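Colleagues,

Please find the record for the two-part complex below.
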Amino acid sequence: MHLQDFDIKLTPLMHKDIQTVRLWRNSDTIKRYALNQEHITKEQQECWFEALRAKEDEYFLIHAMNKPVGLIWYNKLAEIYESGFYLYDIGTQNSLLPYKVVTLFHHYLFEIKKLKKIQCKILHSNQRAVRFNLSLGFKEEIEHERYKTYTLNYEAYKRANAIISRLLTQEKK
Amino acid sequence: MTQEEFLIRLQEEVQLNRPLNPDDMLSDIHEWDSLAMLGTLSVFDEVGASIEIDELEGCISIQDILQKAGFASSRF
């Protein structure tokens, strides 16, 4: 399933793209904010992608400006769904693209897949991501040594999304 | 809202601990990120002005934002 809105598109991650994604993930820019900061080999990436077939997890390439610029996903854990994303293209980082991407993806998770609650984990060192996720309606949940868990339920999503969507779609007067 | 009041609201949204100056370049403001940009949209909304996302992303200075909000290009 392709997801599209604003000027962005999310397409399911295909095998042909997994090594590009691995290079992104292994870059210092992305890896320093990942919970698992170990280098990922080609073989590990192949095994990971093969294992996805048996899981409910979904990974999407983020396309903007007619090129892939990042990755967004959710994983099904034992009792909750966990989401995450990153933008590799530096030109997209100080823009409103993160809000467009997450608005589109959260619509998919909450309105199409009908999830009631999702969570994310953010390293304490990534305060920019903390502020961003709090603005999306996430609430602090459990503090761990290196990271904190944040959760977003449907009601909080709807409240934050109403404001964000209106700002992102307001027409020029 | 005056230009000075607009700058104060912008400073709050950007979460900057110093006053904003029209001459400030956005690339020099460490706090200028997607959250600050969304906050800027909300300040435009408050003053009854609007700006398209492409226009905001094309701004390179606080002066550019002031002009988009309809304030004259005069400096303090």
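Helices of chain A lie at 18-26, 28-31, 42-52, 97-112, 127-135, 154-169.

Comments are welcome before we finalize the supplementary table.
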